[in-house]
Every structure is written in C-alpha cells, then in structure tokens.
C-alpha cells in the first residue's frame, strides 16, 4: 500500500485528458449506460471494474466511438477529449481513433507479417517519410511493448503464428505505433496465462509514462495492481470512482464493497 | 408375382412385423416400458427393418442381374450367321425381347394358351400379323431361331421371377423369425436400429460416389473407342476442327479449348469484380434492412435457367454489341468490326452476368467468416472502412475468394446453353473477341444431336471432348478445394 500512496500523490498533479458528462447509451430498447460522469487523467492508468454486463466495455468503446460501428447503439451526453467534444459533427471518428487507440479482449493480429502489423497504423496515417523512419517506429513500438527481443529475428513471420501472450503484446505494439494520446484496453489479459498477464501488466505500467491508459478488467487484483484510479460500474451506473487505494480499502458505496468482497457479481 | 406386388407385400409384412415386435417387447417387460432396454417403437422398427431391408436389397440386385444373365444365355442360342452385317447383336436381342413380350401379351389376352405357345411354328402361323394386331410391331417375319430364343427368353424370365419371389420371401421370413426371436426386454433394439440408420446413410453416400464412377467409366469406354479410330496426336495437337461425316475429319480439341477458355476468361472478367464488389457492399457496408432485400434479389439471378440467359444473349446483348461495334457509319462507334450477334464477347458478358451471384454469394459467406475482431482492430487504429476492407478483410478472405473464383471458372467452362446461343459455331483460333467462336460444350451438343453413327470418330469425339472437359473442371475444383482448405484454418 506504500507504493500506492506514492503514486496517489503523483496522480493528483495530472491534467484531465478525457471528461465524460451525463453519458447515456442505448442499445435498441436497453439502457446500457445511465448518466455517467467521469474524468480520466493524463499519464494515469484508470481501471473500470464491475460485474459482467454492467456496461464498462460499452463505456470504454464510447471513448473512441467504436460504438458507431454498431447500428443499434445510440450515445448521448458529452465526452470531451482535451476539452473538445468527440461526438461533435466536425470530429472525424477515424482521426479520433488514431488519437485514442484500442487493445481488445482477444488478441487480433492481422493476417500479415509482424512488421506489417505494427506498420499498419503509421502507414495509414502517413507518420513517416522514409523506410528507415518506419523501421524505427516499428522497432520503438515493439520495444515499448516488450516484445522486440522475441520477434526481432522474424519480423517477416506472420503475426498469427505467435503465442497468445505474444500476440497480445504485438497488438499493444500496433496500437502504440500509431502514437495515440489515450490507450483503451478492453480486458487485455482475459485470454492470457498468468505469465503473459504479468508481462502485459508490467507493460501497462510503463506505458503510463507516455499516455493515459484506460483498462477494463474482470480481475480486481489486476485493477489494484496496475491502476491509480478505479471506477466501479454496476447495472449501467457509475457507482464509485476514485483513487484505487481508496476504492479497494475504503469503499464509500455498499455495492462497491459487496462486489470487492465477492458478495455480488 | 410382379415386382410391384412383391414390394407391397414386403411393406405390409413389415408393418405387421412392427406391431408384432412392439407387442412382444411390451409383453416381455410385463407391460412396463421402463423395464425395456429401448422404447417399444425401436423393437418394432428393428423387426420391420429386418423384414424389409435384406429382401429389398436382394430384390434390387436380382432385378439388375436377371436380364443380364438371361440375355447372355439366350444370345448364345442365336447362330452367328443370323446376325447380318452392320447389325449388332443388341438389335437381334431386342427383336427377341419384343417377340417374347408379344407372346406374353397374347397369353394374357387369351389369344393363345401357354401350351399353344410351346408348339407354335413360326412358318405355319402368321406370327408377325398376330403380334401386330396386339400392338407389337416387328421389322420382319419371325424366324424360327428368333422364336426359339423368344420362347426360351420367356420361360427363363418366368422361372427367374418365380425364383426371385421365393428367395425374397425366404429372406423376409428369416429376417422376421430372427428379429422376432431376439425381441426381448434386454435386447438392445435401439442400438440395432441405430446401426440400420447408419447403414442407410452409408448406402446414400456410396450411391453418389458410385454414380460418379459410373459416369466416368462410361465416358472412358467411348473415349478409348474414339482413340482407336482417330489419331490422338491430331486430337491433342492439331489446329483444325473440321468434322466431316464422309470421314477423314480433322478433330482437334485446341481451337475448341481456346474458345472455351477465352469465353470463360471474359466471363470471369465480368463476374469477379462485380460479384466481389457486391459481396463487399453487402457484407461490410449495407445495413441489415438493405441486406435483407438485396441479397435475395441478387440470388434470384442464380435461379434463372441458363437457356433464358442464352435468349438474353441472342436477343439483347448480341444486337446491342452489334449496334456499338458494327453497322459501319450507322453504328455508335462508326466501325465495322462486328457483323453477327454471336461472338465471344456476347457469350462472355452474359455468362459473366450468370456467374455474378455465384461469386458474390460465395465471397459474401467467406467475408462474413472473417472475425469481427479483425475489423475492430483495424478500425480501432483509425483506419477507414475501405482501408479496413482492402488491407485486412480481403487479405484474410483471399484464399476463400480465390477458391470461389476457381469454382466459378469451372462452371464457366462447363456452361453450355449460353455458348450454344451466344458464341456461334465456328471453330476459330483468334484473339478478336468480336468474332464467333465455339466451345467444347457446344461441339459436344452438335456432334451428338441429329443422325449419329456411334461407330464413327465424328460422333465418338464428343466423348473424348466430354472427358477432357471433365478432367479440366475436376482439376479446377480440386485446386479450389486445396487452396480453401490449406489457408482456411489460419483465422479461425
């Protein structure tokens, strides 16, 4: 807990990166997210926890407008990235997603080589001028995702041939290569074994130096290990949001306490 | 007893067997279903199957084998000099069959008695006239040898049928007594019926395979005949297709193969982009409402008979192309490149239209099989929809799409009606798509229709062409399946 209080002090000095105001999400007739207000800070790991179906993944997907691809989904309220509403008509969701990257539950490398997987984002957005610059971006991204040493000799091998944990780190490298400002992670470790999970968690902590990370997780231990801030969702409501240490040791809401202690969920 | 009555009896018997078996099982369990190993209906079915299936199997084999056996026997009775030149044995045998059939009818109608038939003398009685009255027309007067053979044929058929009835009945009886005897509360009737069901499925599967083998075998036989009459070098390496029914024809597959491949190529040039783009629109861009009416509409194209496409080629596309590329100064382009409505382009365009739903519906299934997570990954990196489709979805679906295209190609190569009506009949080695050309399938049709002589290479070449076509499309299908299988698992 000593470690956590240290981090806590650091956290309080950060700027607000994303601010959600009165966000409502409807899937057809289902009211999936009810009036959520939350402030995500820069250079911080924020964890969303809660029982299955509580809306945490839905809310995460609102932050880079991935829900646009689902026809039945309607979002209202405001989500501000650096003070600008991302649901404004002038905002191009494609550009937004380059700034707010995403890592998914199941590793989803493209059926391309490892190199091309990482180079995908930079190629689309034209983030380089020369081939050597691209090589550098790829190497940096793979190093930041802590997978460089494992794949540097086989960059042309297909990304789908890696192990599950390696694939997920490759996907993180792919997201990092696009130079996002925020990285959204939707249960990034749910398909991984404990060793790979530990590697990815370590990685998340390092990534915090560069940008703000939002992670959805089912594992409360994981939330406690990697995050500085925790939000607890229940049945579409944001029940509690605060500094991770506080949420876990001294929850204000009875529902949070029940969930953390394993009585609901 | 006729076959129809025999089968009816078997059905009746097995229905009775069902009831009996069911009853016996129930009795053995003291009326309590829970004491039985299987449900009562399984015991009934087991008995019914034992009564019907083996006799039916014997029956069908017997029906196939008996005529063969009798004919080979009777054919031996006909002296060789009876067979005139240029007439083969099967013609004489069909006379024999007709006479014996006529005798049967005569007896049935009471014109002759069975005893009278035995002592019938072909020279004394006007058999041809008498049979003619019964509606059996014979080509010539019945000769004594034929009459003898017909008599023999008749008696053998009768004896054979009697034997068949007895054997089938015996099998039914044995089946009944065995399965009925076995029926007991501990007998595993459910498993026995299960095995019966499996056997049924195996029979169905092997019938399909055997039919394929039979088709290939029959074609192979005639193909070998053809190569006995015609030089294989001319067939495979000649350059001219000029059948000539007085003999001395040049029968080379190459001009036909060229026409076939050229037309198929144009068809694919039309069908692949349009079909693929339609599939991409339907699976990636269209919303559920659009998709739910656009997809069935597109698939209606697949239900149009190819002869209708042929008419479309002949009446609409052909004249339209002539208006564009022909008619000199009256035409749209003011050129005189095309004279008739039939051309490679006409057939190719229409065949391409025919293949659109084929390509699109296969590609649509394949594109839908690309996991959504792959698209999410790309969209999540800030790619647009079309970038995602081009760089992620299509590469992932490519092996399947290649497979779909190859399947479409093999359909194009085997397509007949459109090319018969749209492509013309002149075998021609030319690169000009506005000229008439002909294809393998068209030539098969024309070589086999009309007056044909199955001893001449001009007719038999149809089988060699058919065989070549079969090998070609089989090769394409195998290649398509191989590609699809090899690369499929990668993304599952």
From TrEMBL, chain A:
Key words, A-Z: ATP-binding, Nucleotide-binding, Phosphate transport, Transport
Transport among keywords: yes
GO MF term (any one): ATP binding
Domain ABC transporter span(s) in chain numbering: 18-260
Pfam families: ABC_tran (PF00005)
Keyword Kinase found: no
Leader sequence residues: none
Protein name: Phosphate ABC transporter ATP-binding protein
From TrEMBL, chain B:
The organism of origin for this protein: Parasedimentitalea denitrificans
Record's subcellular location: Cell inner membrane; Cell membrane
Membrane topology, as annotated: Multi-pass membrane protein
Protein origin, superkingdom: Bacteria
Family (UniProt): Belongs to the binding-protein-dependent transport system permease family. CysTW subfamily.
Chief place where the protein resides: membrane
Function recorded in the entry: Part of the binding-protein-dependent transport system for phosphate; probably responsible for the translocation of the substrate across the membrane.
Domain ABC transmembrane type-1 stretches: 257-480
Transmembrane segments: 43-65, 162-180, 200-220, 256-282, 302-325, 337-359, 460-484
UniProt keyword Cell inner membrane present: yes
Protein name (record): Phosphate transport system permease protein
PROSITE patterns membership: ABC_TM1
